[in-house]
Amino acid sequence: MSATTTATPMSEVLQLQRSAFHRDGPPSAALRRDRIDRFAHAVVSHADDLVASISADFGHRPEITTLVSDVTTLAIEAELTRARVGAWMRPRHPWGRVGGAAGRLAGMRTEVQPSPLGVVGVMGIWNYPINLTAIPALSALAAGNRVMMKMSELIPNTSEVFANAMHDAFDVEELAVLTGDVTVSSEFASLDLDHLFFTGSARTGSAIMAAAAKNLTPVTLELGGKNPAVISEKTAADRSAMRRAAERVALSRIANAGQTCVSPDDVYVPELATRSFVQEVFNAWGRVVPDMFEENEVTTLINDAAYDRVVNLIEDAAAKGAQVIGSMRSDDDGEEALRAARILPPTVILGVTDEMEIAHEEVFGPVLAVHTYDDVDDVIDLLAEKPAPLVATWYGPHDPEFAAFVARTRSGSVSRNDFAVSQSLPGIPFGGVGRSGMGAYHGKAGFDTFSHLRAVVGSELPVSLATLVTPTSDTRLLRAVRRGISGYAKVLERRRRR
Questions:
Q1: Which residues cross the membrane (predicted)?
Q2: What is the pLDDT of residues 285-312, one digit of tens each?
Q3: Which residue among 86, 97, 357, 363 is the one 20 to 30 A from 464 at the CA level?
């Protein structure tokens, strides 16, 4: 049966996989490594086709963006997972080797076994269609699960290429790729899966979670948010450091045309350095954007609705008093051509206030809001009150101010002095908190997300716990327990007085 299962009812695919999972039991380390290899080969061997199909779905996307952000990242994750999966599978001993040995001598054998969950569903997103769909699926396979994948309806060409590649590598009992429109996605989210992984917006994530809740299906949500970047006062005072920070912020804002869940929406800059910072941002764009146009290496916004949404955010901010620098104006030559191509020139917005939509909406486009500050403590207090983003970035030394930034704000992760380093290094957990998501994956974190850490405890003790908690006329045990609790209360009281 084909791994492309749009013609097969999803419930039948689920039943096939669940039956196979129960029939075969947890796969060996060798079989898991084989599945990892087949999965990675299916992607890498179709790299050229994926580059072409992703570009077609976007309208245009540079080859280097897909090869680095989608194909290479998957290959690195596959090799790390392949090398470590055997160790991750081993039973874990909560008391350590010495404690475990002592427990066995005392008549108790305790271990925690990572067990596959069963059938895992993975719902992908369009902005990095291989990275953000294939990596969680790879983690689920490594954990010993059967996997059903639903590709985004916004990338039909990529979905077909990817599904056919997986069809050649897997039987549907191991892995199935489903394609189709929003109704297919809705049905997929409502399946009685053993775990559901979703990457996308907070709004859609809420709907996915509600659908999964009807079956009590556990979910992992990778969402996004208004990822802030802070330029420290020390960086702002050092001209070369500020120029480097401005360049990195500028380039991170236009990577994939800003359609990146960890791209910074907002940057906070010391007031005295704001003008020079903005100038350096435009200098950085000026060095790369003309060549991108000349070489036809500009990533377009995914569709007309996405383009209009970003333009509306800019226009709303301008109408409410913000200063917009660098966006298209009605008299710009070539405006209609850019609009038709869904290309939005990089834009800076100053003076964003709370009543503007852009202050709350994730932009997902090449638009950067620049805010000024006098005291970094005020920025930290402000960010602490906002919904937690997927990543927060600090440009500055690893000093007490940075430590305060980490300690007093919430985010899925923290990057320092560069874009997305907390997401890009192999084996580092990637996940959100609060409105930016729940759960994590990549490396061992992904393996654990798609495993049940199952306690297996055996007793050779002559005394049963059931006996200890059963009422009896012998009051010696009751007196001993009371003495123990009273003694512990005295210990706690002494601690309080220290």
A1: none
A2: 999 998 888 888 899 999 999 999 999 9
A3: 97
List the structure tokens of 249.
Answer: 């912020």
Please write the tens of the pLDDT for every residue from 366-419.
999 999 999 999 999 999 999 999 999 999 999 999 999 999 999 999 999 999
* 3-class DSSP state of 91: coil
pLDDT at 225: 92
- What is d(CA 293, CA 280) in angstroms, rounded to the nearest whole number? 20
Alpha carbon separation from 359 to 204, 214, 232, 362 (Å, rounded):
20, 34, 21, 8
Closest CA to 347 of 174, 338, 478: 338
> Which helix (H) or strand (E) is 15 found in, with range?
helix 10-24
Among candidate residues 7, 20, 9, 11, the one with its CA nearest the CA of residue 175:
20
Compute φ and ψ for 266, nearest 5 degrees: -125, 140
**CA dist list (Å): 322 to 231, 290, 326:** 21, 26, 13
The phi and psi torsions of 206 (rounded to 5 degrees) equal: -65, -40
Find the catalytic residue in 173, 222, 362, 401: 222
Predicted model pTM: 0.92
Select from 331, 335, 338, 365 the least CA-distant residue to 349.
365
Here the contacts of 210-215 (C-beta below 8 Å, separation 24 or greater) are: 211/186, 214/190, 215/190, 215/191
